[in-house]
What does this fold into?
Amino acid sequence: MNNITFASLLPFELILPFLGILLIRSKSPTQALIYRSFLGSVAALIYSLVGAPDVALTEVLVGTLLSTLIYIVSIRGCYSLVLLVKKSEEIDNLIFENIKKAINELHIHLVIKEVDDIDLDTEGNINWDEANIFSGSPHAALLKNNLYVESSILHEELSKTKSLKHTALQIIEK
It folds into this structure.
């Protein structure tokens, strides 16, 4: 074991369950990807310290690098936002351009779908489950100066963008 004592490995071994819990409880795919990379790196460090460099190298190459690259391609390749816009409603060009800039900041593909009507319930929320045009991607609806978003993560990320921070557009989650 190359003069490595249990006490010297203990801090690294205690990090593994902590990273595993963070990985399982993460709500964002990007955060989960980062935690997975750290988890693989710490595991590879432990393998190398206990005298298994071949296993450590395999963990780094396959477990960390390859899976990270595959996850990045799949997360970014599939991530799109369907923006619903009423056909009859005029859209302010400045607000629309700011939405496009914010979506580009997040590296999300924007799909604009014109619909006949977007109904709000008594509380002012859109019932995303009732419409049959919704499937797959997260959705948002633009009504006057309000941007209704379906996902809490999308709401949080859009609120942080430079393009939408100082506009008259109000971002409302579901």
User: Anything to note?
Assistant: Helices lie at 6-25, 29-49, 53-78, 93-105, 152-160, 162-165. The beta strands are 80-86, 109-115, 139-143, 146-149, 170-173. The radius of gyration is 22 Å.
